[in-house]
Amino acid sequence: MTHSSSAKTAQPHIPARTYLIVFGWLAVMTAIEVLVAASALPESIKVSLLVTVAIIKAALVVLYYMHLRYDSFWYWIILLVPVFFVLLLGRYLILR
Amino acid sequence: MSQSIEPHAVEHTEGVHLPKPSIMPLIWGAGFMLIAFSFITQIYYLLAAGLAVILAATGGWLWGNIRERLQPTETPAVAAKFAMWCFLGTEVIIFGALIGRVVAIWFHEPEAHSLLTEPLASLLLVSANTFILLLSSLAVVLGLNSIQAGRPTGLARWLTITALLGATFVGIQAYEYSKLMREGLNFGSSQFASAFYILTGNHGLHVTAGVIWSLVLVVRTRRGGFTAGHYLGVEIFGLFWHFVDVVWIIIFTLVYLI
User: Fold this and answer.
1) In chain A, how many domains are there?
2) Are A30 and B134 within 8 A, CB to CB?
3) Do B92 and A86 lie within an 8 Å CB cutoff?
4) Could A7 and B82 be called an inter-chain contact, meaning their C-beta atoms sit closer than 8 Å?
């Protein structure tokens, strides 16, 4: 299988400190999200802020905990193609 | 199959042994299409035909596996990590559709949606659960870090913590369900309720599967299944667990906070 050769399997040894820093950011951003949700900010600003923070949080987990930052380009493709279709679906639902 | 994912097999090939490609799943799908078609057109003999196709394909699929076991052949070792990413790709579509459905419906049923986050205690409970899941993801990567440094006891400890945190998450979710049901948000009571329970229930099932998987890994670790040079099984589990975490990050924001 070409997949076996093209998709890297060896994992870099990422220091525990990196994982802890990422967790710190995730925890802080979760707290920010809760504060924003409970705040009296205008709805449009609230939604923009919450979605942005959620995307950053998801990206941090995918890049560092799932090691996509250090992994094969193929995994990006596998992840982004379905994400593209989900966004298409989202666009359809919003327009509806 | 079970023999082929033994540590040694994985160590040499960095993949798993899988049965040979089979046409049967495709025939299975065709059977399902016939069944769906029969409901749409209300031509019910197509239903019988669909069931017959599914039954035949199941038999063919099973026979393929039995033949594989009776006469083991050289089959390709597919990179397990690649396979897991492909699986996660399909999961993106499934959860994307389920989340999209909830978000599309709650605009029409804002009062049902408000039950999720009001009073503030409800929001804090879900936030605590989110924090627990994030913490469990940290436990998995610290476990991976331990085994990379050649410390299987550390791995077993972190995986046990992961299982405990995952079980706590599911427990809190069950408590949340009971609270919501007392307040009138029952499965089937509204479109929003159905969509919400299907989405979060599906996610909860994934967490439960992850808890069981991590406990299996704890046993494998204690039996010496992982070493500093061989930990692919932990990595694969990690991908699944972190993905479930990412899905919750999105659910938490789009379903609960907005």
Assistant:
1) 1
2) yes
3) yes
4) yes
Give the global pTM.
0.79
Q: What are phi and psi of B42, to 5 degrees?
A: 60, 30
A7, A46, A96: residue with CB nearest B81: A7
Partner residue facing A66 (CB), from B76, B232, B239? B239
Q: What domains sit in chain B, N to C, each tagged with a CATH number?
A: 19-75 (1.10.287), 80-257 (1.20.120.80)
Would you give the distance in Å from CA B156 to the centre of its chain?
22
Q: Which residues of B touch A14 (CB under 8 A)?
A: 141, 145
Can you state the angle between helices B110-117 and B80-106, rounded to 10 degrees?
120
pLDDT per residue as tens digits for the range B181-199: 888 888 888 888 889 999 9
Which token pair is B136? 């469990």
Residue B218's Cα: distance from chain center in Å? 19
Rounded Cα–Cα distance for residues B207 and B134 (Å):
12
ipTM value, please give it: 0.87
Interchain proximity B137–A65, CB inside 8 Å = yes
